[in-house]
UniProtKB/TrEMBL annotation:
Residues 150-380 form the Sigma-54 factor interaction domain. PANTHER family: TRANSCRIPTIONAL REGULATORY PROTEIN. This is Sigma 54-interacting transcriptional regulator. GO terms for biological process: regulation of DNA-templated transcription. Residues 10-64 form the PAS domain. Keywords: ATP-binding, Nucleotide-binding, Transcription, Transcription regulation.
């Protein structure tokens, strides 16, 4: 607004603005002399406008901070002030012309304690909401496990942990190999938490769960209007969200070949370009990948790129299957039970020797994930504060019976069928090296049905 426009505003309008009943306003000039006091301010300060105008502000309000505003030229918004035994929220604003301070304005933003209280309650509510969303964000993009969460004293597991600790001290790419359920993601979390990027985002990408047509937008993001159905404001990709943090590519073997080429370029240049163009974004991230597949075999078959393998495979960590470390099974089982009891608010239960013997004799095709499933079931089935062999699934009890020669007890037909179905799925996945499409064909079911059953039996 120009000076001419201001001159055209009538005196009546300007006075109505300054003396409105919703604000308590006081104006002083550069010398600290009061030039205007609104009628709303009279009731707050207990001084009439007529007696205040023309006097120095220190005479009207000895504790006024307006002279400091004139000296510093800096505004103070949202400060609290006690007037006549009531807390107020005040704004102190310097008034300038041609770069020079010519006065200052004091304005009460909230003149009643009820409004101040309501503001504080609103701020407290917003802080709680912010804490909630921070917590939710951390659950999605935060890291949950450290090396302390990895239980076991066997030589194989200790060697894997020692190598992972070394990997955590630098930014080199890591591949974690192991059967489903051996704790590949837990190791990835632990490496992130023990390294220099701890506290930053940990972005998990399950390559086996992303439809092929959505792979590029999930990883690299897209600009507004890049394709039909895209958000109007666009979206950042998962790799972009991992800036300064760690990107964990789980089931890297499931990544389509065309995406392997684009991922290789991103790993080489550390630059991401969203679908639909836009400015290339320089991204600083650490990559950790995992798979249960034999990548070298896939390279020979032409389903995985050799150059990408070299880029990912700076450090390789192999995790032992649970059946190869039976000495760790009692430790891991008891740790899982303690965690479940703590979460459920119940006393820790004791595991009887016959149950431990059965657990150690079983071959655990689902590894630690299956062991946790058995622990949850045993807690539900067990009577009292002990878990014995009868509280374990029939397949686990049957393994122990085979070992010690005792007759196997009759089992419910449903349990037998479920056990057989689970074993068939595990066998098919092994025979096809984890290729879910081939395993589904071998089993005579649709791939979607296989995913549903794998989820049911916790084989994903």
């Amino acid at each position: 607004m120009s000076q001419d426009d201001i001159r055209q505003i009538s005196d009546a309008l300007l006075y109505a603005l300054l003396d409105n009943p919703y604000e308590s306003l006081i104006l002083i000039d550069a010398a600290g002399i009061v030039r205007f006091v609104s009628h709303a301010n009279e009731s707050v300060r207990g001084v009439s406008a007529q007696s205040a105008v023309g006097r120095h502000i220190s005479e009207v309000s000895p504790d006024s901070e307006l002279p400091r505003i004139i000296r510093t030229g800096k505004a103070e918004i949202g400060h609290s002030l006690v007037l006549r035994d009531r807390e107020r929220i005040v704004a102190r604003i310097p008034l300038t012309r041609d770069g020079q301070v010519i006065g200052a304005a004091g304005k009460l933003l909230l003149s009643s304690p009820e409004k101040v209280k309501a503001l504080y309650q609103r701020i407290e509510s917003l802080e709680k909401q912010l804490d909630y969303y921070k917590s939710a964000y951390k659950q999605i993009y935060g890291s949950r496990f450290t090396f302390d969460n990895i239980i076991g004293q066997s030589r194989k597991l200790q060697e894997a942990k020692a190598l992972a600790l070394k990997a955590a001290q630098n930014d080199s790419s890591v591949i974690i190999l192991g059967e489903s359920g051996t704790g590949k993601e837990m190791f990835a979390h632990a490496i992130h938490m023990a390294g220099p990027r701890a506290g930053r985002n940990f972005i998990r990408i399950n390559c086996g769960a992303i439809p092929g047509e959505l792979f590029e937008s999930e990883l690299f993001g897209y600009e507004p209007g890049a394709f039909t159905g895209a958000r109007r404001q666009g979206a950042a990709g998962k790799i972009e969200l991992g800036h300064k943090g760690t990107v964990f590519l789980d089931e890297i073997s499931e990544m389509p070949l065309r995406m392997q080429v684009k991922l290789l370029r991103v790993l080489q240049d550390k630059v991401v370009e969203r679908i639909g163009g836009g400015k290339p974004r320089q991204i600083d991230f650490r990559i950790i990948s995992a798979t249960h597949q034999d990548l070298e075999s896939m390279i020979r078959q032409g389903t995985f790129r050799l150059d990408l393998f070299y880029r990912l495979n700076v450090m390789l960590i192999r995790l032992p299957a649970l059946r190869t470390i039976p000495e760790d099974i009692p430790l891991i089982f008891n740790a899982i039970l303690a965690d479940l009891c703590r979460a459920g608010g119940r006393s820790v239960v004791e595991v009887r020797p016959d149950a431990l013997a059965a657990l150690c004799a079983y071959h655990w095709p689902g590894n630690v994930r299956e062991l946790r499933n058995v622990a949850e079931r045993a807690l539900v089935v067990a009577d009292g504060r002990q878990i014995d062999r009868r509280d374990l699934p029939g397949a686990v009890r049957g393994a122990a019976a085979t070992e010690d020669g005792a007759p196997q007890a009759a089992q419910p037909l449903k349990a037998v069928l479920e056990t057989a179905e689970r074993e068939s799925i595990v066998t098919a996945l092994r025979q096809t090296d984890g290729n879910k499409a081939k395993a589904a064909a071998l089993l005579g079911i649709h791939r979607t049905g296989l995913y549903q059953k794998m989820h049911k039996y916790q084989l994903l």
